[in-house]
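Sequence design from tokenized structure. All designs in this work follow the same two-part layout: the structure record, then the generated sequence. An example of the structure record is given first.
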């Protein structure tokens, strides 16, 4: 890649009215984080010398999301050239390469940006490098006009194009790499003699050509250049990003039984030889160790799962959970803010919240840690090798000692000593012959009703 200095201007002032949302368009999430933050991570990978994000007035939420990158305010939305000019005070007198990117086009890759910078550094020394692409439906995109020598002659916006011009398939993505030495001079000469009465950034191509400078276009990948302006396009971008994340996971040694049904977050970390079943959802903040198994229909967020642990099927792991090596969380188990130490087992139909489950402990079906009294949450501690029988309620704060046994159906409100047995249930009572008498009585009643 070129060693010239790099500045980046990210345009993010759009209102996103088609999203029909109170949330700023560029803050809508992809793979668990705001779309603009995907782009800013890519920008950061360039190690740029200057970065400015252009936002609209009252878009403090976007400024906070992109921090520590500085933001410039475009007080009036008068077009893309006007938006770039809003960054002038931040990137004045910059003589390197200036990349102009868009906050609602977050899937562009570092490799593509480097290719644009390399094109800027070519012997042709183009004033502007434009990233083009060929979509299936080019109707709303500006068209790129190439001369016989392949040099970019002009860009015409779709609304200003003739029917003949609209037949061109090569379209403008909006992404540009510009020679910083001439950029402001070009922008100062952009007019608004067009149907929308706006200052088009695309007009700098013709201005640069008139100045005797070359301009070029390079081909980009359609999937990278999807612009997100509606919920439908947001879903399309999510599908593209999920395919990327799944591919990366499988390339790194993860097995996905049914890849298209697994939802990953951008920060999901998966070890080698992890096996993930169908219909698994990973929210933010999940780490899975080598050899762990995540069975079908699990929902996991904010959780650390260590090596060789087994989760699900139909398990829900909530933030603050840590599942240690070889531990098991079975079907229809919910765990929140809890530690399961190595080889501990909560096999089915239980809720474990604000708890610590000791090494090798076994929690029976239907066990509940009653962690909330309506005002405060308290902790349940279950010791190493303890056994808790089915349908037990552990009323926190409470401690079950190492090796202790809690009988099925108990409600435990006091600490249980190590190696002790604790049982709380009503005494069993049997009445011989009662069931037979009941059946006879019911049969008589049923016969009378039929008559």
């Amino acid at each position: 890649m070129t060693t010239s200095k790099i500045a980046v201007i990210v345009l993010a002032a759009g209102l996103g009215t088609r999203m029909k949302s109170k949330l700023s368009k560029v803050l809508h999430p992809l793979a668990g984080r705001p779309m603009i933050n995907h782009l800013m991570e890519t920008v950061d990978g360039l190690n740029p010398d200057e970065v400015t994000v252009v936002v609209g007035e009252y878009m403090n939420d976007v400024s906070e999301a992109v921090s520590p990158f500085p933001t410039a305010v475009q007080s009036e939305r008068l077009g893309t050239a006007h938006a770039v000019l809003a960054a002038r005070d931040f990137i004045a007198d910059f003589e390197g390469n200036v990349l102009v990117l868009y906050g609602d086009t977050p899937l562009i890759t570092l490799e593509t940006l480097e290719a644009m910078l390399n094109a800027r550094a070519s012997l042709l020394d183009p004033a502007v490098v434009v990233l083009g692409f060929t979509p299936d439906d080019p109707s709303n995109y500006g068209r790129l006009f190439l001369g016989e020598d392949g040099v970019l002659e002009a860009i015409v916006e779709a609304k200003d194009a003739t029917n003949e011009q609209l037949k061109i398939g090569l379209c403008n993505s909006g992404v540009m790499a510009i020679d910083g030495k001439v950029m402001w001079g070009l922008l100062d000469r952009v007019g608004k003699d067009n149907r929308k009465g706006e200052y088009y950034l695309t007009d700098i191509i013709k201005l640069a050509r008139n100045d005797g400078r070359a301009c070029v276009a390079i081909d980009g990948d359609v999937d990278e250049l999807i612009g997100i302006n509606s919920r439908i396009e947001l879903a399309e971008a999510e599908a593209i990003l999920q395919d990327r994340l799944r591919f990366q996971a499988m390339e790194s040694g993860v097995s996905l039984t049914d890849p298209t049904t697994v939802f990953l977050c951008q920060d999901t970390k998966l070890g080698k030889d992890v096996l993930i079943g169908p219909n698994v959802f990973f929210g933010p903040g999940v780490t899975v160790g080598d050899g762990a198994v995540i069975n079908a229909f699990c929902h996991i967020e904010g959780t650390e799962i260590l090596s060789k642990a087994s989760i699900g099927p139909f398990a829900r792991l909530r933030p603050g959970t840590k599942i240690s090596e070889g531990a098991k969380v079975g079907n229809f188990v919910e765990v929140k803010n809890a530690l399961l130490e190595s080889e501990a087992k909560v096999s089915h139909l239980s809720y474990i919240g604000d708890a610590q489950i000791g090494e090798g402990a076994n929690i029976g079906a239907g066990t509940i840690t009653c962690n909330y009294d309506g005002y405060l949450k308290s902790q349940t501690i279950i010791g190493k090798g303890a056994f808790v029988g089915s349908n037990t309620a552990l009323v926190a704060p409470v401690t079950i000692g190492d090796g202790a046994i809690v009988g099925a159906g108990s409600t435990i409100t006091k600490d249980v000593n190590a190696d002790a047995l604790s049982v709380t249930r009503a005494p069993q009572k049997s009445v011989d012959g009662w069931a037979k008498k009941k059946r006879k009585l019911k049969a008589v009643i049923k016969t009378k009703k039929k008559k």
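The mean pLDDT is 95. We note this feature because it recurs in several other targets discussed in the main text.
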